[in-house]
Design a protein that fits this description.
Length: about 260
């Protein structure tokens, strides 16, 4: 609570492989990742400011770690703006793949609720919801789930995002999507084993509600070689109709007062 972190080549404020966490009232700037939650469960990230980072707030789930399959993360009432800093992470680091200009990113994490955030002036996208497959890194961990599921994005204010996409991934995607990039970008890669009549069950899907005039694109990525996929000129779905709706609100994280 009420911390300030600057100039980290990884994450300014980092929580990994943890349970029952509050990140509250902090400011992160000039980092590669402003605030990063990784392989953690029951986390509330709220009332923070993330600005002038490569990526403002990242919620990641990564393979090859003892604690797997993070979930139940709420990101709310944050101000996430102008996260356009160059990416200066060491080569090979997972955050080295984050395009400069990323407001928020949900990578392979389940049960994430983002609401009442102000997300603006991020030059690649306001919010990216992606599978681990989009990173093009191999997966050896047989217990790892690379798909984001049960994602609820609602009552946020998005504005002026996607005007100048950058980074390797941003430049690849802008060739497919065009400028400006959308406020909310979804790769659309889902677990085929969980499809019912060709669709994910409602509780595993991505749901959007009351995000004002936020623009949207689903690139409907097939999880295969990204360059070959992009070269095939896949159909981009810009309509939110398949994602309109709600999911149950996640419970607030509570920490005993004597531990705070």
């Amino acid at each position: 609570e009420e911390c300030e972190a600057e100039c980290a080549s990884d994450a300014g404020i980092y929580v990994g492989q943890s349970e029952y966490v509050l990140i509250h009232g902090c400011k992160a700037s000039r980092n590669v990742a402003g605030i990063e939650v990784e392989n953690s469960t029951h986390v509330d990230v709220y009332d923070n400011v993330a600005t002038n980072n490569t990526g403002g707030i990242l919620v990641f789930d990564l393979p090859d770690l003892p604690k797997k399959n993070g979930n139940s993360v709420r990101v709310f009432r944050n101000k996430v703006f102008g996260n356009n800093h160059e990416n200066f992470a060491p080569a090979g680091n997972i955050v080295a793949t984050v395009p400069p200009g990323t407001g928020m990113m949900i990578l392979a994490t389940d049960l994430v609720e983002c609401f009442n955030n102000e997300v603006k002036d991020n030059q690649t996208t306001g919010l990216a919801i992606i599978s681990y497959h989009l990173t093009q890194k191999p997966i050896q961990d047989k217990e790892y789930d690379p798909y984001p599921e049960g994602i609820f994005i609602h009552d946020n204010n998005f504005s002026n995002n996607g005007s100048n996409p950058s980074g390797e991934l941003g430049k690849l995607l802008v060739n497919l999507i065009g400028k400006p990039m959308p406020d909310i970008l979804y790769d659309g890669n889902v677990n085929p084993a969980k499809l019912v009549d060709g669709k994910l069950p409602e509780n595993l899907s991505v749901k959007l509600s009351n995000n004002g005039n936020a623009t949207f694109a689903n690139i409907q990525y097939n999880g295969k070689n990204l360059l070959a996929y992009l070269a095939s000129k896949p159909q981009i779905d810009r309509s939110t109709s398949a994602h309109e709706g709600t999911l149950p609100a996640l419970p607030a994280v509570e920490i005993r007062n004597d531990l705070r």
